[in-house]
Amino acid sequence: MAGLQKKNKIVMKRSVAAPNEDSFYQRSEEYTEKALEKKSVALGYTFDQTDYSNEIAAVTSVMSQYLSSLEYGTVDDLDSYYEEFTSALDDAGMDNLIAANQEQLNAFLGK
User: Of the candidates 61, 59, 56, 62, which has an alpha carbon nearest to the alpha carbon of residue 85?
Assistant: First the structure.
């Protein structure tokens, strides 16, 4: 048991010390630079929700009602519950939100 405890302490010590190694900061900078080279074409885009407050409220309500049960798997019949969830999203106007968002994104991209 003592060996296991010692091993766990060493592993914990290494994980706590890792960010303090000089190479960590250099690797972090390199990662950030590479990430910035591949900017999304949608960078700067924001969906204008002004005309869609009713749909957003309805979709938010549906998500609140169904999502935690789906995330935690606390339903007996997942297939029918998921079908009920997607149907409720359709009724709430999710397709309208997706279409409006796509239309605005296309305009932003000049399409």
Answer: 62
**Block residue for tokens 């339903």:** 75
pLDDT in tens, 32-69: 888 888 888 998 999 999 999 999 999 999 999 999 99
Nearest in space to 108 (alpha carbons), one of 48, 53, 39, 50: 48
One DSSP character per residue, 27-75 reads HHHHHHHHHHHT--TTTT-----GGGHHHHHHHHHHHHHHHHHHHHT--
Q: Are 40 and 109 contacting, i.e. CB atoms less than 8 angstroms apart? A: no
Whether pTM exceeds 0.90? no
